[in-house]
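Example 494.
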Amino acid sequence: MTRRVCNRPKQLGFLEPNGRYSLARIKGLKGRSISKQKRSDLVKKVFVKSYGCQMNVYDAERMADMLATEGYSETKAMEEADLVILNTCHIREKAAEKVYSELGRVRELKQERQAQGQETRVVVAGCVAQAEGKEILRRAPAVDVVVGPQNYHNLPALLKKSRADRIVDTEFPVEDKFDHLPKPSKAAIRTRGVSAFLTIQEGCDKFCTFCVVPYTRGAEVSRPVAKILDEALRLADAGVRELTLIGQNVNAYHGEGPDGSVWSLGRLLHRLAEVPGIARLRYTTSHPRDMDDELIAAHRDLPAVMPYLHLPVQSGSDRILDVMNRKHTGDEYRRLIERIRKAQPNLALSSDFIVGFPGETDAEFEETMRLISDVGFASSFSFKYSPRPGTPAAEIENQVSEAVKAERLARLQTLLEVQRQAFNRGTVGQSLDVLVEKPGRHPGQMAGKSPYLQAVHFASESHAIGEIVTVRITQAGSNSLLGEWVGSGSQEAA
Ligand code: SAH
Ligand code: SF4
Ligand code: F3S
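Predicted structure in complex with S-adenosyl-L-homocysteine:
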């Protein structure tokens, strides 16, 4: 039986018993075919823009999956969206302010579309939503809904409610949002590629004195192993070859195992390495204090665990590290790296650095430069300290001037760039496993990632996306490597 549910112009649709709209029947009834344009008019469109970390990328995908079940398809063009979601980041002042300038643009768009009789609903999600709540409604009249990172499973209900009144939902809920989120379809997973993020842990209990994350994401929560495994199997079944396990403090993972005991990240990696089809495992972001023996051993024992680790150190000065509440010294970090390198001699490292933390002297900054020289990083992220409202470091009186911060950042980034280029050049002549992700820049080329997350291009007519091949690196450009195919990858055995 077919029920006619809507006959407004541009929105002709028939609901089948399976809950889908039937276009064929519309065609039959009207006796003419529906143009591509009209067909796309039947579906509402959502545009999601994510700022900040991988957690936000993952959350944006979950929001899109959930809205797909509400009849929304994703668009990359904000101009044609019926629903605009800005998934925001509060980590530094610049990131938070970006949202308001974007909301100005969204407001203009909303007005233009309104003049053409089209409605645009606007949602602010993510960490700025959590931190600023109602203030966003006050500053940005175009916004209909403000929803925190732990509440976005309520989005369909909030969108309905907000027709009566603009709404804010930032209370930390008792229920687990993951239990309320629909699973992504195979098609959605495929469009996202062969490498996928999987959230295993959220929130942070570390309270580094510069950081807003414990306030915007709440306390540490680890998802149970069974749910992670279920999601991993589903991703692998749709062709995913590489999983990046994510969490604000991912190596503090302590989830409930199927037997009721608490599993560490090391143990979880062992289990995930057994998932058929999954050839590569990564995890981010880790804290040096939580690199336990089991996790270090996983780098030695599991070929699927990539020899690449993002391990933020922030500073090389013991005094600054102490005031930051990082709870380790520069030498403890150095010794930790030695232990991990012993387990995995091919290990490449990346890190985050903050320059100009309140009170940082020239000598203390030089200690950071020394740590960088001692350890050697393949890649890094570095930032000027940005005072965040409500965090202890923002209250410290002895703030460093912008000019000094800029000068230190430039020196630090020069050193890190020299190391990055040297690392890339060091791979020339090596044969590296490459996970093929997409066609390359030029015709007849494919592109993928090395174990060290380097982009690699190589000539190929025949290799499929998702294959792991061995490529001999012939040239290192500034942002990618060039190589030639030499055989199938050692990881293909997985
Ligand atoms: N959980 C991760 C990092 C999360 S935030 C960790 O523990 O390392 C990502 C990076 O942003 C941090 O590593 C830090 O380098 C930077 N960051 C955080 N707060 C900042 C601030 N107030 N100013 C400048 N950089 C900051
Ligand atoms: Fe922020 Fe520190 Fe927690 Fe990382 S460990 S999220 S830097 S408080
Ligand atoms: Fe930003 Fe929130 Fe991630 S503040 S870095 S989006 S956890």
